[in-house]
Amino acid sequence: MTMIVDIVISALVLLGAGFVLIGSWGLVRLPSTMERLHGPTKATTLGLGALLLGSVLYFQLRLGTWSAHELLISLFLFITAPISANMIAKVHLHRLHTGALSEPDSIAGPPPRPGDDGDWATFAEPQQDTPAATANT
Which domain holds residue 122? Predict the structure, then answer.
């Protein structure tokens, strides 16, 4: 039983470390802000979740103590990471829409330019004769 516990804990730590490494590498190497968001919000969040789960299992199964710290950290991380990524993306799209920011073309193609139909996430008013424009009339 001890060998299986050690293998599971080691696998979680290695899996978490691999995800954190890939997420950090993506944050550093990807060219645009929108692509850089995926590294810390997806891969690194999953990596830290696996590391924290490995820590919970280690302290519970090997040392026999219970600690809620890892669970609270995981809860905080999984709640705040998507919200902060959404806010960063909205600010970035708004700055691109207003022309306050210029960014190099990325792997996914050029960023949306002002006047494109990709301004759904900014504070622009709805276009005429769309469901959003006629919803409150």
Answer: 2-134
| 134 confidence band (pLDDT: 50, 70, 90) | low
Residue with tokens 């990471």: 81
CA–CA separation, 98 vs 11, rounded Å? Answer: 47
Q: What is the DSSP string of 8-72?
A: HHHHHHHHHHHHHHHHHHHHHH-SSHHHHTHIIIIIHHHHHHHHHHHHHHIIIIIS----SHHHH
Mean pLDDT of 16-40: 86
| DSSP 8-state code for residue 104 | -
Task: Evaluate if residue 78 carries a pLDDT over 60.
Answer: yes
Q: How many domains does the chain have?
A: 1
What does the alpha-carbon distance between residue 103 and residue 113 come to, in Å, rounded to a whole number?
10
How far apart CA 84 and CA 90 sit, in angstroms, is 10
pTM above 0.90, yes or no: no
Mean pLDDT of 15-28: 91
Q: Is the pLDDT of residue 43 over 80?
A: yes
For residue 127 the two structure tokens come to 């276009």
b (16+ CB within 10 A) / e for 49-75: bbbbbbbbbbbeeeeeeeeeebeeebe
